[in-house]
Amino acid sequence: QKEVEQNSGPLSVPEGAIASLNCTYSDRGSQSFFWYRQYSGKSPELIMSIYSNGDKEDGRFTAQLNKASQYVSLLIRDSQPSDSATYLCAPCDSWGKLQFGAGTQVVVTP
Amino acid sequence: DGGITQSPKYLFRKEGQNVTLSCEQNLNHDAMYWYRQDPGQGLRLIYYSQIVNDFQKGDIAEGYSVSREKKESFPLTVTSAQKNPTAFYLCASSPDRGLNTEAFFGQGTRLTVV
Questions:
Q1: Is B90–A45 a contact, with Cβ atoms under 8 angstroms apart?
Q2: Which pLDDT tens digit goes with each residue over B46-63?
Q3: Which of A20, A64, B12, B48 is the right S-S partner for B33, CB 3.0 to 4.6 Å?
Q4: In terms of Cα–Cα distance, which of A36, A101, A27 is closest to A70?
């Protein structure tokens, strides 16, 4: 059974601070990795993709990938109240299909 | 506007009824998916289709059926055999037959059994 593990949270982050979200996956054949943001009652929206080991930055978001450790993370810098949401980690498995974690709830406090 | 359209947004089903959820995309994507999300839980894959006239069961296909007669459309029927159908249903699509690529989601259908 392929597994994607995330801390469920809630992760409470002061406004302006850095939110750090972690994800581990079991399928060593995973090649592509995605982060989705889901507001309460809404559908997930893609915010980051990463394919190679290392860091990838896009605005206030940085994704980090370490395939040897089967670990992918998302950093949110200068956290804003609008960042309060659930963040879903989604690696593609060995067959190239998306697998979703249960998500980490982030709460940004003023 | 390119995107994925799910309808209806809210749906109420009586015990023993079959209901069909609509999903249409105009992104010219090959792959389409149906997920179910229960409160506080992650997405679970019901069915997926990588090409027209072909589809595969996901992790929780029992009590559901699909068809893929057109590239743009992937309707999901929740049958009376599905004993606990109340959930948030999400349709998604991907390019490149959905291999190692991201999925884009519709706005979802919230199904409630009354």
A1: no
A2: 999 999 999 999 999 999
A3: B48
A4: A27
